[in-house]
UniProtKB/TrEMBL annotation:
<dbReference type="GO" id="GO:0016020">
    <property type="term" value="C:membrane"/>
</dbReference>
<feature type="transmembrane region" description="Helical">
    <location>
        <begin position="243"/>
        <end position="265"/>
    </location>
</feature>
<dbReference type="Pfam" id="PF07690">
    <property type="entry name" value="MFS_1"/>
</dbReference>
<keyword id="KW-0472">Membrane</keyword>
<feature type="transmembrane region" description="Helical">
    <location>
        <begin position="398"/>
        <end position="418"/>
    </location>
</feature>
<dbReference type="GO" id="GO:0015112">
    <property type="term" value="F:nitrate transmembrane transporter activity"/>
</dbReference>
<feature type="transmembrane region" description="Helical">
    <location>
        <begin position="114"/>
        <end position="132"/>
    </location>
</feature>
<feature type="transmembrane region" description="Helical">
    <location>
        <begin position="26"/>
        <end position="47"/>
    </location>
</feature>
<dbReference type="InterPro" id="IPR020846">
    <property type="entry name" value="MFS_dom"/>
</dbReference>
<keyword id="KW-0534">Nitrate assimilation</keyword>
<feature type="transmembrane region" description="Helical">
    <location>
        <begin position="89"/>
        <end position="108"/>
    </location>
</feature>
<keyword id="KW-0812">Transmembrane</keyword>
<feature type="transmembrane region" description="Helical">
    <location>
        <begin position="310"/>
        <end position="328"/>
    </location>
</feature>
<dbReference type="InterPro" id="IPR011701">
    <property type="entry name" value="MFS"/>
</dbReference>
<protein>
    <submittedName>
        <fullName>MFS transporter, NNP family, nitrate/nitrite transporter</fullName>
    </submittedName>
</protein>
<dbReference type="GO" id="GO:0042128">
    <property type="term" value="P:nitrate assimilation"/>
</dbReference>
<feature type="transmembrane region" description="Helical">
    <location>
        <begin position="183"/>
        <end position="202"/>
    </location>
</feature>
Length: 435
């Protein structure tokens, strides 16, 4: 029995009771698996590099490809959430994207690998569905925290994959497979999990606390679906402010997920397993850091309103930029790890604060706003990827340029008035995003 068909006003992470909490747990688990499949290849790139004979420029193209397709995918998926519903959208995305994840091992050329990396990148749009689904399941008083916890625990997949995939690879090598075969077989595992979970998500979640879109449409055709949501989202300057901010935080997070293991391996001559553990520590902070950002944002919002949330976001971005610049100058592995953990805290908190603001931009266009802002994260990753592709600058120099760019974006975000409120009345289920 469902206890209520309204958005919850409290987040009890130990509860699976009711469609809201069941959806909360399944959506972060789905995002975790999507992230695992998305970046499963990242910690194995040293092996793939040798197997396929990749150059630094080609690796840079692969890094860009892994996040480029997500830009368009996130905007499209955001629109689908508004019209088709998050339940069917998530199930379809996981089912379809599990195929390139499972079959990437079939390629034997740089060109083929690049195309598969591009296809796998589409799964990064899963984040938009996760944030949409938690936004409609929780009350506006707690939605920032719910979004941040779900997003953070899902992002944890990026850290866990850096730790687990080298061990999976080593396991297959231990079974007698050659390295050039082991990495290919290893990728089948996250693909199978994604395929199975697509059915789980479809079976055990609902689009809203009140029911699925198709059921609500029968009762009231205007209750859920809204026309022109993408145009509404695009006309609001606050959407683009968050687009920039998310590019500066999440965009750099997924870039770091892609290059961290390789950076530690080559700059500090660590073993592949050690490089994976150090890179995994960065992602592992999502278990609490993004949630802290959402919790703080909700408290600041309750006391100082949307202006307070905006200033908090700007401050965190500034601290992140400074931290990355210091990381770039680290001369020892100890200094690199310490500065990495510091800027990671600010970065992941900024992620949480960004999506504590998103549900309040426009109630009728939650999916489209979420999609555009999410796409901003990948645009940031694509631009950063070009720095790591360049043969004229080192990875350390690339991190320094990124730190300066983030500080500039922080200044822009500080000037945006996020308190501008649209008066929107929506019938039915999408209650929590009222500003």
């Amino acid at each position: 029995m469902e206890t209520t068909n309204k958005p919850l006003e409290k987040l009890n992470i130990f509860s699976f009771k009711g469609v809201q909490m069941r959806t909360f747990h399944l959506t972060w688990m789905a995002f975790f698996l999507c992230f695992f499949g998305w970046f499963g290849l990242a910690p194995l790139m040293t092996v793939v590099k040798t197997d396929l004979g990749l150059t630094k420029g080609q690796i840079g193209n692969i890094i860009i490809a892994s996040v480029a397709a997500t830009v368009v995918a996130r905007i499209a998926i955001g629109k689908l959430c508004d019209t088709w519903g998050p339940r069917k959208t998530y199930a379809a995305l996981m089912g379809i994207c599990s195929i390139p994840v499972m079959t990437v091992g079939l390629v034997h050329s740089y060109e083929g690998f690049l195309l598969f990396r591009l296809a796998i990148g589409v799964i990064g749009a899963s984040f938009v569905i996760t944030q949409y689904h938690t936004s409609v399941m929780f009350d506006k008083k707690i939605v920032g925290t719910a979004n941040a916890v779900a997003g953070g625990w899902g992002n944890l997949g990026g850290g866990i994959t850096n730790m687990v995939m080298p061990l999976v690879f080593a396991g297959f090598v231990g079974m007698g497979y050659l390295p050039e075969s082991a990495w290919r077989i290893a990728m089948v595992i996250p693909g199978v999990f994604l395929f199975v979970f697509a059915f789980v998500y479809y079976r055990f979640t609902k689009d809203t606390p009140a029911g699925n879109f198709e059921d609500l449409e029968i009762a009231n055709p205007k209750a859920v679906k809204a026309k022109g949501t993408l145009a509404i989202a695009m006309k609001d300057p606050r959407t683009w402010g968050l687009f920039l901010a998310y590019g500066a935080c999440f965009g750099i997070e997924i870039t770091f997920d892609n290059v961290a293991a390789l950076y530690f391996f080559e700059n500090f001559e660590t073993s592949l397993a050690t490089a994976g553990i150090l890179a995994g520590a960065f992602g592992f902070m999502n278990i609490f850091a993004r949630a802290v950002g959402g919790i703080v944002a909700d408290k600041v919002g309750n006391k100082y309103g949307m202006i307070g949330k905006g200033k908090l976001l700007a401050l965190l971005l500034a601290c992140e930029g400074i931290g990355i610049a210091l990381f770039a100058q680290s001369g020892s592995i100890v200094a690199a790890v310490v500065t990495m953990l510091c800027f990671a805290m600010f970065l992941k908190m900024a992620n949480g604060v960004t999506y504590a603001i998103v549900p309040f931009i426009n109630q009728k266009a939650i999916g489209s706003v979420s999609g555009i802002v999410g796409a901003g994260g990948n645009v940031g990753a694509v631009l950063a990827g070009f720095l790591f592709k360049s043969s004229e600058i080192t990875y350390s120099q690339a991190f320094m340029y990124i730190g300066v760019a983030i500080a500039c974006i922080a200044a822009v975000v500080a000037l945006i008035n996020f308190d501008k409120t649209r008066s929107v009345v929506t019938e039915g289920a999408l209650e929590p995003a009222e500003a």
